[in-house]
Description:
By secondary structure, the protein is mainly α. 80% of the residues lie in helices and 0% in strands. The chain has three domains: 1-277, no CATH class; 289-488, no CATH class; 489-559, no CATH class. The radius of gyration is 24 Å and the shape is globular. It starts with a helix and ends with a helix. The model is unreliable at 555-559 (pLDDT under 50).
Amino acid sequence: xxxxxxxxxxxxxxxxxxxxxxxxxxxxxxxxxxxxxxxxxxxxxxxxxxxxxxxxxxxxxxxxxxxxxxxxxxxxxxxxxxxxxxxxxxxxxxxxxxxxxxxxxxxxxxxxxxxxxxxxxxxxxxxxxxxxxxxxxxxxxxxxxxxxxxxxxxxxxxxxxxxxxxxxxxxxxxxxxxxxxxxxxxxxxxxxxxxxxxxxxxxxxxxxxxxxxxxxxxxxxxxxxxxxxxxxxxxxxxxxxxxxxxxxxxxxxxxxxxxxxxxxxxxxxxxxxxxxxxxxxxxxxxxxxxxxxxxxxxxxxxxxxxxxxxxxxxxxxxxxxxxxxxxxxxxxxxxxxxxxxxxxxxxxxxxxxxxxxxxxxxxxxxxxxxxxxxxxxxxxxxxxxxxxxxxxxxxxxxxxxxxxxxxxxxxxxxxxxxxxxxxxxxxxxxxxxxxxxxxxxxxxxxxxxxxxxxxxxxxxxxxxxxxxxxxxxxxxxxxxxxxxxxxxxxxxxxxxxxxxxxxxxxxxxxxxxxxxxxxxxxxxxxxxxxxxxxxxxxxxxxxxxxxxxxxxxxxxxxx
Length: 559
């Protein structure tokens, strides 16, 4: 395959970051409007209870298949990969029935006023999950064959349809907020799924014509067509029927045993990982720790505190996972693999560790001085009056540092573990998840909502230690030390400390006088911190600049 996996991963991460920002900005604007005009309780039902249902169904039914099939695909036939990924659809149907029953009959709602809308929302979310998995095969192929811009287009479509439908219904009648959320969920997912099938129908139909040079006079620019079709000799699909499951004569030929084993390993891991990822929401839903109004407040603060994680860390992790699965074999020791790939992947891991760690430290330092300002601008004076939202956001900034390191190290660990190691790690994940839920429950009753954040920090620190041990052991005899990237540099740390002190003085002395002046001081300090980081990592900055500059030059020369 002639595609550049590293550049594709970087490009995918860049586009993901941009569209995560756009999507979250739209979401935050809508949430702010709901808080001020509809109420905290409705927001709590939507963002905690209903989105938790979606996350639970999708994570357990999609992630195991997706992660397994993203591995060394050359080991399996495309028919086996397609058959395997389609198993997620019946699994999602079973999980949907099971979890909707629990959501409607076991988890307390509390307010009968929203009973009908809540039930409608649960079934709508379940339907949207099944619809999404009907195009999971297309999404997988798009990622494996590096259709980065297709994902950009579909993300745009998803945001547009979801926003238009939600706002249209809620502006018509504010009391139908949960109905609006449900309709927007189903319609936006359905639109994306339909577009996937339309695109691949068009792509397959025109691929032979492009090879003959017969697509020059179309509405699509020739430069885009060239990027779509070049280096695609291994794209073996000739009809939409090839994307559907197919019986190949026997179970062993229809489903690859190794691929199925890997899927089962990820499924076991997925259950406990879901508890670790969404543990606080499960505790909120099962126990009367917080009301829906308090849950909405926690969710708003948690989302604001997770801006860096959602905008930057998650796209980087997704792209890095794909990159490492293609560069490093799970089954072979590193010294028996292509050393060029191992050296490159080690360098990439080191640079990614340094980048995300630096971002996490910046969020931690500036978050202590600008948590109040951000929440005041978002929710108004009444929202921050109790002081709890500010305390939550400042505490969450510490969790972001650990989240940054854990995301990348665990991403590499999962991408390179063997099936046996994954099975072994599942038992450790069970221990992590049970401990996390117990600690969350105890600390929440002791410290209130801040207990959720403390328990998250403890959990992530334990997982980081395991991932670091795994990576050090894997690279023990190679001479590479990718985890040296966690050392962010003395100059950067010094400037960051000074900036933090200046911003804290500004908050105490100038915030009440002028919010604009306080923000301006923070902006100047932030600029100096970025300059310090760029100076200390000038080789990396120069390489990235050179790659972008050379890419632009090549485009100009081609034009």
